[in-house]
Amino acid sequence: MQKNLAMLQCSMYIMDHRNEMALTSVWGRTRKDTTMTNDMTKMMQEMMASFPMDTNAMTDAFKTSAALGEKMSKVALEAASKSTEISAKLTTDTLSKMGEITKIKDEPADYSKAVTDFASAQAELVAEHMAAFAEVAKKVQMETVELMLAAGKDFSEDATAAVKKATNEVTTAAKKAATAK
User: Fold this and answer.
1) Domain map of the chain by residue range?
2) How distant, in Å, are the alpha carbons of 3, 90, 99 from that of 126?
3) pLDDT in tens, 10-59
4) How far apart are CA 38 and CA 45, in angstroms?
5) For 28, phi and psi rounded to 5 degrees?
6) Is the pTM of this model over 0.70?
7) Among 38, 43, 58, 96, which one has the highest count of C-beta atoms within 10 angstroms of its own C-beta?
8) Long-range contacts: 124-133, Cβ < 8 Å, 24+?
């Protein structure tokens, strides 16, 4: 109700200024003897005043969003750090096992055995490290779901508080308008 009334007042105000601008083009000046720039500035100020806005609700929503971003960044950075550690360990282990392949062998069959042993050891090593990567991914997934659920709750609480406040303001304005008649 309050919003509709404010919109109607704003529309009437804009129409009044349009008529005034039409008069300006005919007579070369406004009724109030002000410049068009001042009229537009004043009109915008009055229009914005007709639509009161609770900046606290916007500030709270921004803070909630920033906190979520910070927590999500922390999860991502921890996962990247752990993944880097796993990759470095895999590389180190692989390079240490390659030493056996590069050693000089007495028999040609020993080279084949060394490569086969390396491939077998590498398969085990990769399986272990892939399991470690899977654990990191699982942890990130769980933490992300927890953060999203908590954020949904926070946003819901913020929205509920904003709606309650707006309802109270509209009710108060409606009561004032009813008593003014």
Assistant:
1) 1-52, 54-180
2) 64, 7, 18
3) 565 565 655 555 545 444 554 455 555 567 777 777 777 776 666 776 78
4) 10
5) 85, 0
6) no
7) 43
8) 125/90, 125/93, 125/94, 125/97, 126/90, 129/86, 129/87, 129/89, 129/90, 132/86, 133/83, 133/86
